[in-house]
Amino acid sequence: TLTQQRWASRLPMNTVVLFVPQQEAWVVERMGRFHRILEPGLNVLIPMLDQIRYVQSLKEIVIDVPEQSAVSLDNVTLQIDGVLFLRILDPFKASYGVEDPEYAVTQLAQTTMRSELGKLTLDKVFRERESLNSNIVHSINQASDEWGIRCLRYEIKDIQVPPRVKESMQMQVEAERRKRATVLESEGTREAGINIAEGHKQAQILASEGEKAELINKAAGEAQAVLAKAEAKSKAIRLLSDALAEQNGNAAASLSVAEQYVSAFSNLAKESNTVLLPSNTGDISGMVTQVYWFLPTNRLWDFL
C-alpha cells in the first residue's frame, strides 16, 4: 500500500550503531514486537533481532486539507479548503494507534469542517471564521488523542460560493452602502436644519434682548427726564414764590399776566374773523387781578 511504501522509503537499516537525528523518534521492534523508542543521539541495536519499524518526526507538521463541498445552515453549497497544523506527541500511539496518522487527521478535519459549517449560516461563516477554526481544532483533538497527535491550529484558506449567491451578496452589499449613504445624507440634512433653527433662535433671542435693553434704557431716560423736569419746575415754583413774596412782586406778576392776556387776544384775532371779548375788556387791571387771585400758584406759573 501507499502507507507501507512511504514507511519503507524512510526506514533506516540496522547497522548496529545508529545516530538518531534531533526531533525524530525511531520505533524499534525486536522479533516483530515493540521493543523501545530510540532517543536522539547514539544508539546500539542487535542485528537480525532488532528492526526499525517506524520513524516519527516530532516537528510541527503542516497538512494541506483538500478543497471540499459543504452545505451551510441556510442550504448554500460552499467550496472550502484549509491548512492543518499538528504535532506528534506520542510516537508509540502514532505508530500503532492508526495506520496513516496524516491521512486520518486530514479526513477527520474534512468531516469536522463539514459538520461545523452545517451549524452556521452563510453570513456567520464569513464573520465567525476564527470561532469556526477553534471549533474544528477542538473536535479534532477529541478524536486524535488516541493517536498520539495534537492539533495545534486550523486555518481556512479560501471559501468559494456559487456565482448566483455571489451576485446576490454583491447586490446586498451595494444596497447596504446605498442605505448608509441615504442615512448619512438625511442625518446631514437634519443637522443642517437643526443648526439653522438654532441660529434663528439665537438671533431672535439676541434681537429681543437688544430691544429689551433699548426699552429699558429709553424708559430710564424718560424717567430721568421727567424727574429733571419736575425738579426744574419745583425750583422754578420756589423761585416764583420767593419772587412774589418780595416787594413789588405782585406788580411784576400782574404785568406779565397782562402782556400774555393782550398777546392771546392778538393771536385769536389773527386766526379767526369772529372774536368774543369779555364785557370789561377795557379794564385790564381788573382782569389781571381776577386771574391772579383765582389761579393757584402752580397754575399761575403755567399761565405765565
TrEMBL record:
It is a lipid-anchor. It comes from the Eukaryota. SUPFAM superfamilies: Band 7/SPFH domain. One of its GO terms (biological process) is mitochondrion organization. Its main location: mitochondrion. Transmembrane segments: none annotated. Residues 15-173 form the Band domain. GO terms for cellular component: mitochondrial inner membrane. Belongs to the band 7/mec-2 family. This is Stomatin-like protein 2, mitochondrial. The lineage of its organism: Eukaryota, Metazoa, Chordata, Craniata, Vertebrata.
